[in-house]
Amino acid sequence: MNFMSFYSQSAKYLIQNPDSDYAVCSFELSSLNEVSEWHGPITGNKLVKYFADSLKAVLPNAHYMTRDGHSIFHVFASVNNQNQFLHSINELFKNKKLYLEDEILSFSFSGGICFFHGSEEPEFSYFVERSDIARKNVAEKQHAFLVYDDNMEKRVVWEQKIASTMTEALENKEFKVYMQPKYRISDEMIIGSEALVRWISPKFG
Q1: SS3 at position 33
Q2: Per residue in 47-85, pLDDT tens?
Q3: How many Cβ atoms sit within 10 Å of the Cβ of residue 115?
Q4: Helices then strands (H, E): number in the chain?
Q5: DSSP 64-103
Q6: pTM confidence score
């Protein structure tokens, strides 16, 4: 299923079934590039298929799944019990080996989960974005997953607030440039400088 179909079909399912709990999961198969580079694209494709099949196996209540780009997967699933759902995800993370004819390949991936109720107002894209944010909060290439929570939401709101005021800050000349000299010890000479920009904001300090 392509990404646009994933969006439209999931959104349609939510409209028709608003009284249930759901999750959007975002996974990055972080070692895919490495596997494809060292073992070839055929092995890389085998890993993609194996990972997709593993997602289907541990998430039987999944309604739709898509591979977005090269190594990102999204899953939309019903959730009967969050603890059981998280247990299923943990089982997925335990199984991180691809068995080939002549060798066993270990691979790594990270994940983010956004739980929500079908009656919540935001569009489906909102929950996909939040699952992506949770995934990106996992340290790079770590074999782990995170659930989107209030702390992440506060951070997102704060970043959006900062970004929305930057144009006004430029117009008000709130950004100040400072030149930091580069000093060469051997002959005690200043050989250049680097620019540092500070935002002196009356709103944010």
Answers
A1: helix
A2: 899 889 988 888 889 999 999 878 899 999 999 999 999
A3: 19
A4: 7, 9
A5: EEEEETTTEEEEEEE-S-HHHHHHHHHHHHH--EEE-SS-
A6: 0.73
